[in-house]
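REQUEST
  id: r-88c1
  op: predict_structure
  target: alpha-L-rhamnosidase
  payload:
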Amino acid sequence: MTLRIILSSLLTALLLTAFRADKPAAVQLQRLRCELLTNPEGIDATAPRLSWELSGAARGLEQTAYQVLVASSPDKLAADEGDLWNSGQVTSAQSVHVRYAGQPLRSRTRCYWKVRTWTSQGPTAWSAPASWSMGLLNYLNWKGRWIGFDRAFPWDDETTHARLSARYFRKEFQAAKPIRQATAYIIGLGLYELHLNGQRVGEQVLAPGPTDYGQGVKYNTYDVTGLLKAGPNAVGVTLGNGRFYTMRQHYKPYKIKTFGYPKLLMQIEVTYADGSRDIIKTDDTWQGTADGPIRTNNEYDGEEYAATKEMPGWASAGFDAKSWLKAELVQEPGGAFEAQMNENMKVMETLRPVSIKPLAGGKYILDMGQNLAGWLRLHVQGKAGQQVTLRFAETLQPSGELYVRNLRDARVTDVYTLKGGARETWEPRFVYHGFRYVEISGWPAGAAPTLADFDGRVVYDDMPTTGALTTSDATINQVYRNAYWGIRSNYKGMPVDCPQRNERQPWLGDRTTGAYGESFLFDNSRLYAKWLRDIEQAQKADGSIPDVAPAFWRYYGDNVTWPGTYLTVADMLYRQYGDEQVLARHYDSMRRWLVYMSQNYSENGLVTKDKYGDWCVPPESKELIHSKDPARNTDGVLIASSTYYHMLDLMRGFAATLGKTKDADEYTQQMAALKTAFNQKFLNRESCQYSNNTVTANLLPLSYGMVPAEAEAKVFQNIVDKIMVENQGHISTGVIGTQWLMRGLTQRGRPDVALRLASNRDYPSWGYMAANGATTIWELWNGNTADPAMNSQNHVMLLGDLLIWQYENLAGIKSAPDAPGFQRLEMKPTPTAGLTFVNASYQSVRGLIKSSWKQEAKRFTWNITVPGNTKAVVYIPAKDAKDVQESGKKAASAPGVKFLRQEGERAVFEVGSGDYAFVVK
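RESPONSE
  id: r-88c1
  status: 200
  body:
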């Protein structure tokens, strides 16, 4: 043993002895996560990042050091043996994204870890253990062959409305000895369900996550030790179509991608108690059939299930499969194999319907009381061969019949054929619907259907809800609830635009700012990190980025506002989750896009290419999504150039963060030149109006810092005048302008105007939707009167920065701009006449944040919670700091509170972690 190793071992031993000699602090370490996932299986990050939270009752809790142990077995971890990594005592406050720096991690390695910390309140005990496992890191680790049936069967239909039955595959095998560990790795395309010995593996649905399968395919990993046994075993996999065998075959193939027939690659690796190993893998010894109960499954058109075709025991050992076919070896899809590092979808909630009403012809209309995305589970009893048909819609006609014109040609119909006998329960496997109402026909005679016969199954990505917010304004509360339902409806392994019609595409422009607002309601970090990978894979070699990614539709429109979402989502992940890695990973691709746009669409110092304008500017006509009045539509070159300026600014920040000083200087120079050309072209220096003086035309350069200092006040006043005078206090921006509207008004001293927009209940407004029965957010401001082809009742793109404003400006919950990932909070609520209280909470990446304020006639109260290992700068509405009390004491002398300065009518303090109760009289 070398002297260095001896000294290192002695130092570690001394540290451990010293640690144990201290009394553990009353501090808890909780929410241990690897790559922000809880105990993930089968990851492919070879240097994964570890995170934890600190909590304690005392104020001012700060971490000063940490020690992480990673072991190859639970026993070694329990014995404090970090054979994979012992970080030793690291002097650092970092508790989020601590990068593993131990032994090289190889395929299949199982890792068990724990952490302890030194804090301002003393050392902690070891945390409870957590774990992760490595996936298959090398292509050669995959031992199986791709199997499937590369053809349709006689009962299938491959015309435009594709009707392709599910494929079933099975394999029996022997486990000759007691099993110590068994792990399943599976790529089932388009969608799969995995069964072992007759039991379904996992709770995921509609797995795996969708990708452009020619670029990358996701695999899932499961610990299946408890499902196998010594002796005979069986594995069964059902394959659905998903986005692989596309919903519209042979329809505009130049536009819509399809990837072939469903196919499967999987292996189960078994380690026996004596250490020997075995692999059960897909090959041509498997058996398969397409003549099972799922007769068709199509995301747009629905699923048909014939219970009379069920095959009891098909995924169990001993099943008679003589009639089954030999599985065929098929070509692999072409995309790289990638571990799925974001959550699969899951049934996240079950709703009971609120009413059921009869219609003529033996039909019934079921009302769920809520527009949702998922499916209906039914319970029915009748004779074999009877069929119950379920047809879905968001709204009803005046006659009470379904309104389906806005679904375009999506048939959205499920059909269940009864097997007869006892009461049967069924729900689909490989489709989802966006709906509130269901038309039921073919119900067995003898008894009318009742509410107890149906459940609404709410399906979206298995991510926790992180935020809650209520105010004294009922309209704001209803719109917030509608936004919550709309967002969860459109998380489908990727962020889609709508869940109901024949579209459901991941449009980039819908999430430019929306992803940021959504992050306060849901922990969407893994979903959007995955989506950035989708965008990266969709980028052309020349730098062009599509408007839809994954590029299921080949829409390369070469505009700025939609592809620019690539940068704004990366910025969101850095700002909200402290994820610097996404900046490093995607920097070169983002830079290549900027260069491509500049080289191909520059003229007179401006970027000229715009495709969509300020999408959905009110008042929309019945036929158009835009106003017919040209005075309300914003110049496309202004939109493109100002947005490009903002992209340069983001890239300048990314470059500075990544230490690319030369690049940052280059972006600064480009911004200066573009700003000069922009103001020469669009700014009327007499009136301080940009272009034709729309709110968006003035708001974008003001928000992006392009307006000369001497003109800022007047430009802002033009915006206010447009809203309050010309539009009588109503919104007049589309998707682009609304991304900056609420924050722009509030941060420049007119929160009253922002509150007016948020609380309106007449057209055009978010409240108008709620007042007209919406339970989600519409695609259009006039969604109840618009052209049926463009009036989805479940969209999120018009939210703009509303949710950001609610959390950051109303509640005052914001990560300080120079301390991403909530290392430090900037808590600056904006009490406004007409709003008497706001209660909000947010489970940040570092812990729970709360803000609850109440405004009374002569008293302002504000209760806050700051998570452990975090500080907050709090801005309290008080003309003098002496007027501020905290828990009954002068705030400036209260424990954990430090007075910083007076800013106008706000007293500014710094506080550490803990609970605080401020009062201003």
